Amino acid sequence: SIRSGLRPQIRPQTEMDPPAHIWEFYTSGTADLLFRGLVERTPDLGVVPAIAQAWEVRDGGLTYVFHLRDDATWSDGRPVTAGDFEHAWKRILREVTRSPFSGLSFDDIKGAAAYRQGPLSNTDQVGVYVLDDTTLVVELERPSSYFLQLMACSAWYPIPRHVVRKFGPLWMNAEHFVSNGPFRLADWQPGQRLDLVRNTRYFGRFGGNVARVELALSLDHARSLAAYDDDALDVLNLEGAPAGLHAQARLRHPDDYVSFPMLRTWMLQFDASRPPFDNPALRRALAVALDRTYLADIVQRGNVFPARGGFIPPGMPAHSPDIALPFDLSAARESLAVAGYPRGRGLPRLVGVSQAGMEPLCQYAQRQWRNELGVQVEWEIIPAGLMVERLVTQRPALRITSWAADFPDPDNFLREVIFRRVFGGWCHAQYRALVDEARVTPQQARRISLYQAAEKILIEEAALVPLLYARHALLLKPWIKHFPTSPLEWWFWQDVVIER
Q: Is-contact 269 390, C-beta < 8 A?
């Protein structure tokens, strides 16, 4: 077995989340252990068959015909069918208020956006239908070069229709829980621990020798490090740890330390539909008063990269280096005056929201804006696991948060983040036209140039301000001999090899 600290402060809950309702990065990782979709992503960011053993692309990319394996079963032994996928996806569309991060993801499907927005009244009119138990047809609104990457995300996983029909909303209770991934649920103590065991009915490749995964949910970072010191954990996730504790962990266990870049950007974001942040001059003033290099090297002690480029992080197609608004206090003061608030006069005290672990960034922004611009801000810090819920329910007008890629394509940053209801507020006709054109352009070079042109507008308008590009860091015990990672995830537990 392997024991890992998953992430402290996951939001409290009394039942499991269906894949489509998952909002949070680490919960998505747990879904990746329990479920499998038509395709799956490899550590090198490729897409390979999973439950779909093959597929055909027809009509110039408008139609996909998926042929399912006939040996794929749920953990209770029932076959995984094409109808399980159709039921799951159309259920998401009908429950879009429960699944705000999934609704827009399905807009590539023919009729999905029309159903979501009202013109279509029945999901039978949406372009997903079953030919037989092992054949699923998906029709798209327009060709999409990233469609298979999108389908590797957790929102596209199936759900067991036979269990849902029997138990209704209670199907996600632990005693009824059925999944189809490399692991199945063994024990769950909400807020404390989650234990998974190898699913002996799993149809796919299982490259490692892990029989059990024990995820600690209740440990804060300091207690996690102490548990690792005592060999009570095999893997320690350092993401979100205070910079001082991060450095302490690296000093204590230099040979166990592993770090790698992530497709994730920390950002300062505004709701540009609400005053005073509807004023682009104010947004630019706040943006250029922050020194990203100081943030990365001093505040975060070199554990991250300064975001000198755009919102799209390094390592992803269309990343634009060196387009960030430069740190310039003189320009910040001038822009603040243009906005109508010279030296901060007349600007009400600002209120921002961020998550636990980001206190140093918030304190730095608070100090810079107060000392250099005369702008006062108060920050509310909330548990990391509750951050997305706050964004959905209250949509704070000022926040420091992050976006981690769901799939390695610029559309996941430039369309999904800006157009989603939870992040919305900024509207720019030319930006939207460029992103919409890029979304349907088959030539990769042209797509990239369109996304880069759109991102330049995003940065110049300071609709959001990239601050840091993330690195992920882990401590791995020396008896872990193989531990695959990728810029998107680090939970390929089925491929982990542990020395006895």
A: no
Residue type, 132: D
CB burial readout 145-165, b (16+ within 10 A) else e? bbbbbbbbbbbbbbbbbbbbe
CA dist list (Å): 163 to 86, 388, 419: 15, 29, 34
Q: Which two tokens stand for residue 376?
A: 């006062």
CB-CB contact of 427 with 419 (8 Å)? no
55 CA to centre of own chain: 27
Please report, in angstroms and rounded to a whole number, the separation of the first and last CA atoms in the chain: 10
Taken in order 425, 428, 433, 434, the sign of the CA dihedral is negative
What pLDDT, in 10s, does the model give residues 140-196? 998 888 899 999 988 899 999 999 999 988 888 888 899 999 999 999 888 788 899
Contact 148, 70 (CB under 8 A): no
**Residue 10 near residue 385, CB atoms below 8 Å:** yes
Task: Please name the residue that has the structure tokens 């230099």.
Answer: 254
- Mean pLDDT for all residues in the chain: 89
382's tokens = 């909330």
pLDDT at 368: 98
**Alpha-carbon gap, residue 85 to 69, rounded angstroms:** 13
Q: What is the DSSP string of 242-310?
A: -HHHHHHHHHH-GGGEEEEEEEEEEEEEE-TTSTTTT-HHHHHHHHHTS-HHHIIIIISTTSSEE--S-
Query: Which 3 state secondary structure label does DSSP give 213?
Result: strand
Peptide bond into 276 cis (omega under 30): yes
Let me know the angle formed at the C-alpha of 118 by 113 and 119, rounded to the nearest 5 degrees. 85
Q: Is 63 exposed, middle or buried (0-12, 13-18, 19+ CB in 10 A)?
A: middle
Element (H, E) at 188: strand 183-189
